[in-house]
């Protein structure tokens, strides 16, 4: 009886976690469906005629009607959306009107570049943001604390495209510290064999040291700019949580017993703010994956953001919906993972 009760007690948290994740995933899937419906409707309100983009202004009426029928644009908007959902259920996202390639192939080609850029920016932003928040808490109202506040303010206030253009002007055109737009120079673009889709890893695996250094020279500036935005949000929110935790009595007691700052931070502050830390870092990652559009446009980075920008200008509905689906799916997966990690690592949430 005791063993049965113990087993039942251990299985309860797992069952509750599964139920929580199922409920969250269901609500997020409904949100994604609404996002697709809104994007689909908004795309059809564009004044650009996708049929004329394909056939040209001098096409005959019969040619125009035939292409319109092939694209399914002769049906009502709800019917078109239903046909799109049917294709989506079969794994087909349509053909891009801009590139002439299946949208799935375009997404598989462009998403790794965005993933590489966002992941490197998150590593930089989280490392600097957590360290800056800790130092700011150790020295409240000091010059370090003021610097943390200024960085947070600048990261939230200054437009990313302006920082990108300024960075190119200073570090590329002026100091020549950056290799400029793109992922690689033209010398290496056509010689790189894509294996993982991540230029840093592929250039390293190629064994060409010059190609690897060139990839780093192209990567560091957009990573620093996006990392600044990530660091601003992480520093601001984590600093507030650490200041609140640092004012509690158990921290004063640990300090009175002679515990060092690193011991207090590692064994008391960070464990008791890990829920906030996980949430802030993961949401920052979502914002980097979603918000790299302007950065990729400024740096001609061949990622998902630039692909979506070009699709919006061309009124390429299949490409727009495919990119929206990927971004929404990333949001769903990362939110569900964040909720699970917080629930598992912080007993107070249970």
From TrEMBL:
Q: Name one Pfam family in it.
A: BPD_transp_1
InterPro entries per UniProt:
BPD_transp_1_N (IPR045621), MetI-like (IPR000515), MetI-like_sf (IPR035906)
Instruction: For this UniProt record, give its keywords in alphabetical order, as a comma-separated list.
Output: Cell inner membrane, Cell membrane, Membrane, Transmembrane, Transmembrane helix, Transport
Q: Where in the cell is it found?
A: Cell inner membrane; Cell membrane
Q: How does it sit in the membrane?
A: Multi-pass membrane protein
Q: Name one GO cellular component term.
A: plasma membrane
| Stretches assigned to the ABC transmembrane type-1 domain | 111-338
Main localization, broad class: membrane
Transmembrane regions listed in the UniProt entry: 21-42, 115-138, 150-175, 219-238, 277-299, 319-344
Keyword Membrane in the entry? The reply is: yes
**GO MF, one annotated term:** dipeptide transmembrane transporter activity
Q: Quick check: keyword Transmembrane helix in the entry?
A: yes
Which family does the record assign? Answer: Belongs to the binding-protein-dependent transport system permease family.
Record protein name field: Peptide/nickel transport system permease protein
Give the species this sequence originates from: Rosenbergiella nectarea
């Amino acid at each position: 009886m005791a063993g049965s009760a113990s087993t039942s007690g251990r299985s309860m948290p797992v069952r509750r976690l599964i139920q929580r994740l199922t409920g969250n995933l269901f609500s997020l899937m409904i949100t994604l469906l609404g996002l697709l419906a809104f994007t689909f409707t908004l795309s059809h309100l564009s004044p650009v005629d996708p049929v004329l983009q394909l056939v040209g202004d001098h096409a005959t009426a019969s040619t125009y009607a035939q292409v319109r029928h092939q694209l399914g644009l002769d049906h009502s908007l709800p019917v078109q959306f239903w046909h799109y959902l049917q294709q989506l259920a079969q794994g087909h996202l349509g053909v891009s009107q801009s590139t002439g390639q299946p949208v799935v192939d375009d997404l598989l080609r462009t998403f790794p570049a965005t993933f590489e850029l966002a992941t490197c920016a998150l590593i930089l932003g989280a490392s600097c943001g957590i360290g800056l928040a800790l130092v700011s808490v150790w020295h409240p109202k000091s010059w370090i604390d003021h610097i943390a506040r200024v960085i947070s303010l600048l990261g939230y206030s200054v437009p990313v495209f302006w920082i990108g253009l300024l960075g190119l002007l200073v570090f590329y055109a002026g100091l020549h510290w950056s290799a400029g737009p793109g992922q690689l120079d033209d010398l290496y673009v056509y010689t790189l064999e894509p294996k993982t889709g991540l230029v840093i890893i592929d250039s390293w695996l190629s064994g060409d040291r010059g190609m690897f250094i060139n990839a780093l020279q192209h990567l560091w500036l957009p990573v620093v700019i996006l990392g600044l935005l990530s660091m601003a949000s992480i520093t601001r929110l984590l600093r507030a949580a650490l200041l609140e935790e640092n004012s509690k009595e158990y921290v004063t007691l640990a300090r009175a017993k002679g515990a060092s700052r690193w011991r207090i931070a590692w064994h008391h502050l960070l464990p008791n703010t890990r829920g906030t830390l996980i949430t802030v870092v993961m949401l920052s990652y979502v914002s980097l994956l979603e918000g790299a559009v302007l950065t990729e446009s400024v740096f001609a980075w061949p990622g998902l953001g630039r692909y979506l920008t070009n699709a919006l200008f061309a009124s390429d509905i299949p490409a727009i919906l495919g990119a929206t689906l990927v971004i929404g799916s990333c949001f769903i997966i990362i939110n569900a993972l964040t909720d699970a990690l917080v629930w598992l690592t912080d007993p107070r949430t249970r």
